[in-house]
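Can anyone check this?
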Amino acid sequence: MKITQLYVYPIKALRPISVQHAQLTPQGIKYDRTFMLYHVKTKVKTDDDGSSPTTSTELKKMQLSSYPQCALFEQTILSRDDGQKEVLVKWHAPSLPTDGLGSESGEELEKELEQAEREKLKRLETETITVELDPPPKIDELEKMEVDLHGSPTTCYKVGEEYDRWFSERFGFEVVFVYLGDGKRQILGTNLLPPATPHSHANLRRQSRQSTPQQQQPQQPGGGGGGGGGWLSTLTSLTSWFPTVPISVPRLIAIPAEREEDQDQKPWITFTDCAPLLITSESSLSNVSARLAPDSTSSESTPPQVPMYKMRPNLVLDGEGEEAWAEDYWGELVVTSSSNWCSPTNGNANGNTAKITKTKLYLTGNCVRCTSLNVDYDTGKPAKGEMGTVLKKLMKDRRVDPGMKWSPVFGRYAFVGETAVDDNGGDQEREEREPEVWISVGDEVEVIRRNEERTVMDWPI
């Protein structure tokens, strides 16, 4: 299989950003869901006699399922001249509801809008806002606050009143824009947790250099231990992360993908729902689209195609050689990439040094679905016609996770495992630097372990 699409969402719930290359960290794709929006709901309570009213505020998480108007916000990552990165946010006015109306009726509807309202919408579309990504906002200058997402609370930071006003004016109610900063969300339940790594980053790199004399034996035929592990599964001579037969590989350096130095630190997540990555398959998406009937208002006889961005994945695989829904049983994947050379700090800009990386991904949970699948990204409302029935179509036979028995499954949650690097004899200076792990559209992906049964989600909701 190959990676066909990569998506990142710096601000949770807004439109995705399609990228060709992405840097992986233990928390998934770099920048992914490090910002979020909360609806500030004010409640007024009075005594029984109607006197002494008091007010309180409640923060409600903003996601597409309950706030479909989030789909009207486009985000784009920009690189400035100084090399720093920022995300540009632009709001799109919703399309006018002209369904079933002729062109004349559409013009009449347009005329009914007051001139002031049209000018306001135009202004709101024209005015954009930017948020610093790299370097990120300075948290020591921001107000700290506590939030909760899916029962997993964290400390985060208010980015600023300017941002709150910008978003609030476009949503039509009070919104607070927050940055995760040094906050960390706990992974709830036990089934989602990936295998623990027994080695710190520094120790593992030192071991790999000390093991160089033993790495000169080529792999013997038939020595892969089965399961399609290939040469990645030979790394047990360096670390017990991979429970397979140890066979040495020339010039192979094992790195733990920027793992925490503290070996006792448990995995944690950003503002992602339950895990760092979401992986989907085009084979399964084709099955979903085939369930939709042709639009009765259109002359086209073919059913509409569900766009993959509605599934909000990070990695999309073509699913070649795999049947629809085969990912339900995927346990481990290996992504083979040669794109690290393009990294600004961990490669040769002239392409003189070839580098191959093999990154292991642990697929530990099913992604259960909600009404976000039915959102029309042009109107910011539930879609009409067949595109508004996607969730219902999946309810028939995709409620396959007994831990979330009322919701259909599409896609798999994943964690970033270790990366094996063949730098083709790269220089010592490059080896001493903290390595970066990059993946790209077009990278090869192999299933190296399949589960006999589907995993069961036990995140308490």
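Reply from J.R.: I decoded it. The first helix runs from residue 103 to 112.
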